[in-house]
Write a structure and sequence with these properties.
Chain A has 336 residues and is an alpha/beta fold. Chain A has 14 helices and 12 strands. In chain A, strand 11, helix 12 and strand 12 form a beta-alpha-beta unit. In chain A, helix 2 packs parallel to helix 9 and helix 10 crosses helix 14. The radius of gyration of chain A is 20 Å and the shape is globular. Classes of the chains: A alpha/beta (336), B alpha/beta (280). Chain A: Its cofactor is thiamine diphosphate.
Chain lengths: 336, 280
């Protein structure tokens, strides 16, 4: 499709974004002596190593042992400290799944997890290193908060905010090379509250993570070229989800499409569908993600294109959803 | 330091009481892990009535010693010891396993006073203990962390991840026990998945190993004193025990890993415990 909408993940300008959370954690470490950092031989890859260099006595590398990583984090939390743990999303959510669930969530500990390399962001590494299941897994754990920031700036907001948010928090980011979306941190980030990026009345695009930028590019294109009034919601917090924003979108636009770098089973799309179904409201709805398969190998940008998660794909999906029929009865306003 | 005659007498009275309690709870609850509860009883008793620096009136006191029952299925033994220590009423345990009871067979630290860590899934406790010991050291606190593992539990790879890190971090404020009763659900530990040479495995992972009779308070005391004083790194106390200890028809019987007791069996079991303590 149009020029400029297929983007390059390896953008030298965005390299600093990758290091934002490491820097934010360093700044937080000055203010909060109770913060400790942990990783499992991925201190440098995950950028938590920046914290480790600044506060070596408050940083613990347990080697390639993710089960121990989260057990040790639980113990540190129980001793009165606030652990920030970082490793790849696939190892957090699957290798150490039970430790995260039983040692951290069951005991409702103040442990903050920054899971990197989420989705297909390490696409060339193959399915062992893709993580398209973690949102489904993490949101099924009682007490867990799940956040998928749109970019480094939003990740910084999530990291800063989660320190005052009780209980375990799972912050899912990419490999760190993703382009920035926000220019600055002052846009009203709140855990559990959607960010309305664009107002619209014809259709609502709901997105998180890397799809936020793509949805916005697509929305602008659709406004100019198709004359559509598109609402774009960045639902960065998948749990607890902003039900009010979703129901309002249903009432105002009656057409919704969700885009996420995750299996279409159990992620943001499923969370949104739960809210819609419980509301009793009818609408046209679709969810776009990895279609219940193991993701192909390739550079993330090629994979996003393949799975229709880039702006071209979003545009294609919107045009389809605008053609979808759904039941609209006469006493529309009397529903619920 | 060797225990005095009075100390031993006192601990034996607590151990007798704990074994009676375990039998009662197993009867009330319809079923519990009585075999491994009876094997770890003496470790629990010496910890709670001799060593642990805790305050039942202030269970969350931040400078208390931490105790982790990594073999969480021994809740049937752990809960009555906590009750007799004064954390809650023993009679509350009549609800054990029942609808909305705070007492499931694996104790929940958010529901049961005195429990520091929720356990039950094997292979988790030692990692949490490592985190607690690191946390104490970082915060310059002098409390100790104690962790009790089952021997079958040591099949779990995560135990050895934790062991590797305990010695890597030179944790001399962590004391680990293994309740070496040599039985697991499916049979003898050495038949199901051999652990021997068990002490050598711990040594190879950087632990100092003390092997004791886990039903002998003097030997346990000597090993705990040694472990607390040792500054070079972590100590593991391999406590050789008998599953079902004190109940003659249960001792070393694999089928008593888990079971229930009707009125007759309860009476038989209690009589056997009385006999062991010379009270019959």
């Amino acid at each position: 499709m149009s020029e400029g909408l297929t983007w390059t993940v390896y953008d030298a300008d965005s390299m600093t974004q990758a290091e934002i959370y490491g820097q934010v954690l360093c700044d937080l470490g000055d203010q909060h002596p109770e913060i400790v950092g942990l990783s499992a031989d991925l201190a440098n890859s995950t950028k938590i190593g920046k914290f480790g260099k600044k506060f070596p006595e408050r940083f613990f590398n347990v080697g390639i042992a993710e089960q121990n990583l989260f057990g040790v984090a639980a113990g540190l939390a129980k001793s009165g400290l606030t652990p920030f743990v970082s490793t790849m999303a696939t190892f957090v959510s699957m290798r150490a799944c039970e430790q995260v669930r039983t040692d951290i969530c069951y005991q409702n500990l103040d442990c903050k997890i920054i899971a990197t390399h989420g989705g297909a962001s390490f696409g060339q590494a193959g399915s062992t290193h893709h993580c398209t299941e973690d949102i489904a897994i993490m949101r099924s754990f009682a007490n867990m908060t799940v956040i998928v920031p749109a970019d480094g700036i939003e990740c910084a907001n999530a990291v800063k905010t989660c320190i005052d948010w009780p209980g375990p928090v799972y912050i899912r980011i990419g490999r760190g090379f993703e382009p920035k979306f926000y220019d600055d941190e002052e846009y009203g980030f709140q855990i559990g509250k959607a960010v309305t990026l664009m107002e619209g009345t014809d259709i609502t695009l709901i997105c998180c993570g890397v799809t936020v930028l793509q949805a916005m590019e697509a929305a602008k294109f659709l406004k100019e070229n198709d004359g559509l009034s598109v609402r774009v919601l960045n639902i960065h917090t998948i749990k607890p989800i902003d039900e009010e924003a979703i129901i309002k979108a249903v009432m105002d636009t009656r057409r919704l499409a969700v885009f996420e770098e995750h299996n279409v089973m159990g992620g943001l799309g499923s969370a949104v569908a739960d809210v819609i179904a419980a509301s009793g409201k009818g609408c046209a709805f679709t969810k776009v993600g990895i279609p219940d398969c193991y993701c192909e190998v390739g550079y993330p940008e090629d994979l996003y294109t393949h799975y229709k998660l880039d702006a071209d794909g979003v545009i294609e999906t919107v045009r389809q959803v605008m053609q979808m029929d759904f039941e609209e009865d006469d006493d529309w306003e009397d529903e619920v | 330091m060797a225990l005095s005659t009075n100390e031993i007498k006192d601990l034996e009275q607590h151990a007798w009481q704990a074994r009676q309690d375990i039998i009662d709870i197993t009867g009330w609850s319809g079923g519990a892990h009585i075999g491994g509860g009876l094997s770890v009883t003496d470790i629990l008793v010496i910890m709670y009535f001799k060593y642990l620096n805790v305050d039942p009136k202030n269970p969350q006191w931040e400078d208390r010693d931490r105790f982790i029952m990594s073999k969480g299925h021994a809740g049937v033994a752990y809960a009555p010891v906590l009750a007799r220590k004064g954390y809650f009423n023993f009679d509350d345990l009549q609800t054990f396993n029942k609808f909305k009871s705070p007492f499931g067979m694996h104790l929940d630290c958010l529901k049961v006073k005195g429990v520091d860590v929720s356990t039950g899934s094997l292979g988790h406790g030692l990692s949490i203990a490592v985190g607690l010991a690191l946390g104490a050291r970082l915060q310059k606190k002098d409390w100790y962390t104690y962790c009790v593992l089952g021997d079958g539990e040591c099949n779990e790879g995560s135990v050895w991840e934790a062991a590797m890190s305990a010695s890597h971090f030179k944790l001399n404020n962590l004391v680990t026990f293994v309740d070496r009763n040599r039985l697991m659900i499916d049979g003898k530990t050495e038949d199901v998945m051999g652990l021997e040479p068990f002490a050598d495995k711990w040594k190879a992972f950087g632990f100092i190993v003390k092997e004791v009779d886990g039903h002998d308070f003097n030997q346990l005391a000597e090993a705990i004193d040694f472990a607390k004083a040792e500054k070079s790194g972590p100590v593991v106390i391999i406590a050789n025990t008998a599953k079902g200890k004190g109940v003659d028809f249960m001792e070393n019987e694999v089928k008593w890993h888990y079971g229930g007791l009707d009125t007759d069996l309860r009476a038989q079991a209690k009589a056997s415990v009385d006999k062991m303590y010379g009270k019959a």
